[in-house]
Amino acid sequence: MTVSKVASMADAIKDLVRDGDTVAIEGFTHLISFAAGHEIIRQGRRDLTLARLTPDLIYDQMVAAGVARKLIFSWLGNPGVGGLNAIRRRVERAAVAASGEPALELEEYSHHGMVGRYVAGAANLPFYPLRSYFETDLPKANPLIREVASPYGDGVVYAVPPLRPDVTVVHAQRASAAGDTQVWGLLGCQKEAAFAADRVIVVVEEVVSDEVIRADPNRTIIPGLIVDAVVVEPWGAHPSYVQGAYDRDNQFYLDWDPISRDEAATQAWLRDWVHGVAGRAEYVEKLGPERLAMLRPSGSAPSGSVDYGQYA
Amino acid sequence: MTDTTTPAAFTKSEMMIVAAARELAGQRVCFVGVGLPNIAVNLAKRTVAPDMELVYEAGVFGARPGRLPLSIGDPTIVTGATAVTSMFELFTFYLQGGLIDVGFLGAAQIDRFGNINTTVIGDYDEPTTRLPGSGGACEIAINARQVFVIMRQSRRSFVDSIDFRTSPGNLGGAENSARIRQEQGWLGRGPSVVVTDLGIYHFDDDGEMRLDSLHPGATLDEARATIGWDLRTAPTLETTPPPTADEIRLIREELDPGGAYTK
Question: Against a cut of 0.80, is the pTM above it?
Fold first, then answer.
């Protein structure tokens, strides 16, 4: 009998995320655990290094809330909308000078470089080689991007160092209580980031039985073996999306632009929607049934099923 | 039936998107970037390049979006696609492995050799404006067989010297670029087309951007006034055929009914 790892979000963050940690809340536009990010804000963590390919709105909110001292990333924007304004205020010269606060530290790669960093971290390798960065200014901006000669004498490539987050948070459609996690739709680098991490929190729309997992083992991207906590948090990825369950709340991505351009409006939003609610259930209630209904898929598109066969 | 008549009115943005989509005729595998490339490629798929495979860096090969994706990670690129891959597979096997014919990029700044900046305006450590950064652009510029660029023209974006080189183009010129690309084992030949709101540029033998076609209504003076170097033009300057009624209908009714890209 496997032990259940099901925990509340408050307990999972309290037990597994510490001040000063490197935290990766991954998910490429899809399956971004806003619920975990908001709980980290509520619990007042400090001096975090936040890693993500695309910091997205969740890291803009976390930076605005003062939990972070550094970002590791490859594309800093509000996808399809514009910039991340709270982060820009901590980076751009005029805004940093006006605030009197220290600038946010940035460590910047390309997407392939960030993916490779997780791969090297997960595979226990000293670096990851790739054919990016030639003739660009990125190695000057980030001296951790270095040239390496092929040991076989056929040229030079670039190397990026392994990334081993203290904690990776992954949102998923479903997992067993033991943490065996299944995802469909965009996979991003959830698997790589989870295997690279010291501690793993999986947040799911629903917990399913072990039989459901075992009926479709090809869909399992993360085994319970490496999972420390399973948090059940329906709508936990809002305003990002969960394939088959709910769509991206694009109106929120649009609304965040004017909110985040104004520091007072940003702080007011955090008071209302993060500090002002006890957790995700209350946030979902506050969103209201009409908003949620608009985000449901317009129709169904079930996968075909395959027969794995019995070999008893 | 496609309607090939010219509509009474079209915007500069619509002309730019249509011109960019037409450049994709005959291409087999296209890596789709965020923003304007997204709509241009989706228009091409519905017009000149129905068999083109759309590749999204989020990890999709052979996407068949049922609506214009809101971002490059929209759920509509997954449903009905040929394959969903991890980003690791996408960047290694598909892009670095040489399967991408065209990478389609936008830019904040571009120089005469097609080198691109999407990182910062000003000094890197204390920027005036912080831009998104590379994303997948620097590896697309190096590994895609050719690179198309779509962006609006202005003195702020078409500059003599870019503030940061995020994605390499023809470096300091074609000869230099060809030598470096070969020495370093790049699969890509670099930028081949730049489509703006005023015209269509290709690259001369020496690697410099050359205006080949002006869009209807655009003037050479306007093109010169919005470019930060001494503009080179083709010996015979063409006029871009205007959008057809069918192209405009697809943009306004199917792809961008909210006018997010075309205002």
Answer: yes
CB contact under 8 Å between B166 and A138, yes or no, is yes
- Using the Cβ of A94 and the Cβ atoms of chain B, whether some distance falls under 8 Å is answered with yes
Q: Where are the beta strands (DSSP E) in A140-190?
A: 146-149, 156-160, 167-175, 181-182
Task: State the Cα–Cα distance between residues B105 and B76, nearest whole angstrom.
Answer: 21
CA distance A249 to A56: 13
Residue A271 has φ and ψ, to the nearest 5°, of -60, -45
Domain ranges within chain B, ordered by starting residue: 12-255
What CATH number corresponds to the domain at position A282?
3.40.1080.10
Identify the architecture of domain B12-255 in CATH.
3-Layer(aba) Sandwich (3.40)
Between the two ends of chain B, the Cα-to-Cα distance in Å is 27
Does pLDDT of A1 surpass 60? no
Per-residue pLDDT reduced to its tens digit, B214-261: 999 999 999 999 999 999 999 999 999 999 999 999 999 989 888 877
Question: B7-61, pLDDT tens digit by residue?
Answer: 778 999 999 999 999 999 999 999 997 778 889 999 999 999 999 999 999 999 9
The residue out of A161, A182, A209 marking a domain boundary is: A161
What ipTM was assigned to the predicted interfaces of this complex? 0.96
User: What tens digit of pLDDT does each residue of A71-129 get?
Assistant: 999 999 998 899 999 999 999 999 999 988 899 999 999 999 999 999 999 999 999 99
Q: What does the buried/exposed string (b/e) look like for A104-113 if buried means 16 or more CB atoms within 10 Å of the residue's CB?
A: bebbbbbbbb
The CA R_g of chain B, rounded to the nearest whole Å, is 18
Same domain, yes or no: A185 and A143: no
Please list every residue in chain A whose beta carbon sits closer than 8 Å to the beta carbon of residue B166.
136-138
CB spacing of A189 vs B122 below 8 angstroms? no
Task: Residue window 167-196, chain A: list those with CB within 8 Å of chain B.
Answer: 184-189, 191-192
Nearest CA in chain B to A184: B84
Is residue A4, in this structure, part of any structural domain at all? Answer: no
pLDDT over 80 at B160, yes or no: yes
The residue range of the domain holding A155 is 126-161
* Nearest-angstrom CA–CA distance, B38 and B40: 6
Q: Would the pLDDT of A176 be above 70?
A: yes
Q: Which residue of B has its CA nearest to A86?
A: B130
Residue B181: count of CB within 10 angstroms of its CB: 20
Report d(CA A272, CA A278) in Å as an integer: 11
CB contact under 8 A, B71 and A248: yes
Q: With an 8 Å Cβ cutoff, are A132 and B167 in contact?
A: no
Which token pair is A93?
Answer: 């010269």
C-alpha distance from residue A72 to each of A76, A147, A158, A164, A194 (Å) = 10, 20, 18, 12, 16
Distances (CA, A) of B71 to A101, B75, B115: 33, 9, 24
Cβ-based contacts of B131 with chain A (< 8 Å): 76, 83
Do A153 and A213 belong together in one domain?
no
